[in-house]
Amino acid sequence: MKNNHFQHLLEINLAMLFIATSGALGRYVQLPVTVTIGTRAILAFIVLFIFCKWKGFSFKIYKNDVLAILVSGVLMGIHWITYFYALKLSNVAIGMLSIFTYPVITAFLEPILLKTKFQLVHLLLAFLVLAGMYFLSPSLDLENTYTIAIGFGVFSALAYALRNILLKRKVAKYNGSILMAYQTAIVGVMLLPFLFTIEPVQILSQWQALVALAVLTTAIGHTLFLMTFKHFNITTVSILSSVQPVYGILIGTIFLSEIPKGTTILGGILILSSVVIESVRSKKQPKLS
Predict the structure, then answer these.
(1) Structural domain includes residue 278
(2) Whether 47 contacts 181, CB under 8 Å
(3) Which of 16, 33, 166, 273 has the fewest CB atoms found within 10 Å of its own CB?
């Protein structure tokens, strides 16, 4: 049991490391956001489709789950688009940290939507995460684009929280790669018209970053993330995943030379503290289906 719990924690941290590449890649790609997300979704779908066929996973979806999966795909598209606008209008730190209001949003929404027991500790840990974000964020000026970026980020967080809650009870029925294949297909279809608004050569010029977004961030990272839903409740997952901005800022520092300040380090410590506390606490909780 101890080894299994450690393995599940390792899996979610690995998922967060892969997903955290979205910050630096989102800043690096010089394409319209809708084109970036549309291309990312289509490439990720191709990779996931080939993988699922190779593994022999069934693509069959029960009729009563079709609407939930369709809506979750739309929410995923909204999450990605608004998140990338937040990145474009600010930097890796602001973009990633603003969407990590979603643990707080999840802590409020999960008991209402999934009829689970409300746990005060989740709110306390979520506010610890917010305290960390406060130290990581620069001073806000209503006259600059950072305020707009944070608005996009919080809206992205809302879409992400709703998508995660919606899929919580589907991961027991379907393989994570299958769910991600359907979601990337939905996003790809939604944004396909935007791919014809620019010259193909412009998309091809960014192929390395787009492939990295599709394979590392989306196909691998988000599939691993979905698989962790089987082992923790959604609020626990959201709080554990709060380590993602720390990974993202480190990646941004290495590859984009966005050097964090001393307050960033303090904020990172607060966020990691909430992750450690929830890791220990969740180990004592029964697995939720």
Answers:
(1) yes
(2) no
(3) 273
53 in Cβ contact with 5 (< 8 Å): no
Say yes or no to pLDDT of 133 above 80: no
DSSP string across the chain: -HHHHHHHHHHHHHHHHHHTHHHHHHHH--S-HHHHHHHHHHHHHHHHHHHHHHHT------HHHHHHHHHHHHHHHHHHHHHHHHHHHS-HHHHHHHHTTHHHHHHHHHHHHS-PPP-HHHHHHHHHHHHHHHHHSPPP-TTSHHHHHHHHHHHHHHHHHHHHHHHTTTTTTS-HHHHHHHHHHHHHHHHGGGGGGS-HHHHHTTHHHHHHIIIIIIIIIIHHHHHGGGTS-HHHHHHHGGGHHHHHHHHHHHHH-----HHHHHHHHHHHHHHHHHHHHHHTSPPP-
User: Taking Cα atoms as reference points, which of 54, 56, 164, 155 lies closest to residue 98?
Assistant: 155
Does 234 fall in a domain?
yes
Residues of the domain holding 181: 2-283
| 51 against 120, higher pLDDT | 51
Instruction: Please report the pLDDT score of residue 284 as a whole number.
Output: 61
Q: Are the C-beta atoms of residues 253 and 205 closer than 8 Å to each other?
A: no
pLDDT at 287: 46
Query: pLDDT category, 96, cuts 50, 70, 90?
Result: confident
pLDDT in tens, 157-202: 999 999 988 887 787 788 889 999 999 999 999 999 999 999 999 9
Look at residue 289 in the predicted model and tell me its pLDDT: 39
Cβ-contact 286, 236 below 8 angstroms: no
- Cα–Cα dist 135/277, whole Å: 19
Residue 186's pLDDT is 97
Structural domains of the chain, count: 1
